[in-house]
Amino acid sequence: QVQLVESGGGLVQAGGSLRLSCAASGRTFSTGAMGWFRQAPGKEREFVATISRSGGSTDYANSVKGRFTISRDNAKRAAYLQMNSLKPEDTAVYYCAARAPYNINTSYYSSNYDSWGQGTQVTVSS
Predict the structure, then answer these.
(1) Do the beta carbons of residue 99 and residue 110 sit within 8 Å?
(2) Mean pLDDT throughout 46-54?
(3) d(Cα 124, Cα 98) in Å, to the nearest integer?
(4) Contact status, residue 122 vs residue 59, Cβ threshold 8 Å
């Protein structure tokens, strides 16, 4: 089992930037593909971005494509989400998720992820 802890959330004005971090720990030596999801008040959790275990493949929700960048550092067992040109509609709790080590490919589906962080709040003011 992998434990994930997100950090880097906060309050930012529209047009600003934030960088979220996700640190993995636990008995498992490594994680498979990783992803970021978000949940706004009154809405279902939605996919934001995903990255393969090697980092060579990424994919994004259309709503964030061109503004957000997902990356990972396997040596540090960490993943990141660089968020630029933030909009009020990006306001949500952001969750980091990891697939099991043998699941190396990206996935849009939350059900394909085995471990989840507790979430970090991102609030974008207009």
Answers:
(1) no
(2) 97
(3) 26
(4) no
**Cα–Cα distance measured from residue 24 to residue 86, given in angstroms and rounded to the nearest whole number:** 26
> Which residues 6+ apart lie within 8 Å of 79 measured at CB?
21, 22, 24, 34, 36, 51, 70, 71, 72, 73, 96, 98
- Token pair of 56, please? 């060579």
Question: Letter for the amino acid at 51?
Answer: I
d(CA 117, CA 112): 15
Asked if 61 and 47 count as a contact pair (C-beta separation under 8 A), the reply is yes
Q: What's the rounded Cα separation, in Å, for the pair 117 and 19?
A: 16
Q: Which two tokens stand for residue 23?
A: 């640190």
pLDDT per residue as tens digits for the range 58-105: 999 999 999 999 999 999 999 999 999 999 999 999 999 999 988 999
At residue 28 the predicted structure's pLDDT band, cuts being 50, 70 and 90, is low
Residue in 3, 2, 18 with CA at minimum distance from that of residue 92: 18
